[in-house]
Amino acid sequence: MAPWPLSRRCTCSVRASGSNGSSPEYSWSFDDKKPVRASKAQRQILEIPVDQIRRPLARTRSNNQAKVKALMESIERIGLQEPIDVLEVEGQYYGFSGCHRYEAHQRLGKPTILCRVRKANKATLKMHMM
Q: Which domain of life is it from (predicted)?
């Protein structure tokens, strides 16, 4: 028996030094489930319709248009070589990276995009959105 009361609440704090020397502090907690880390066996590469990928984080800056244009040319010539990473939570797909590749596919009018899919729970999704 543990000498302290146990609860199902998980709290985590992280301190990191910013590039400008500042010390931002981040913290999050989960009331019922801890985030899970996907093993390689839980990841798969799939073609997913572009319009089914939710991009929940607002961009603070626009994409580098020269990079998007170069990616568009490359995708037209040889296809997408590196899949974007998405989380699958309860049948919905959420993208947090691959912004330039995603925009290039949108601008080319491509119906699908190659994705590295990782199954996750809602707690993991919440952590990615902080």
A: Eukaryota
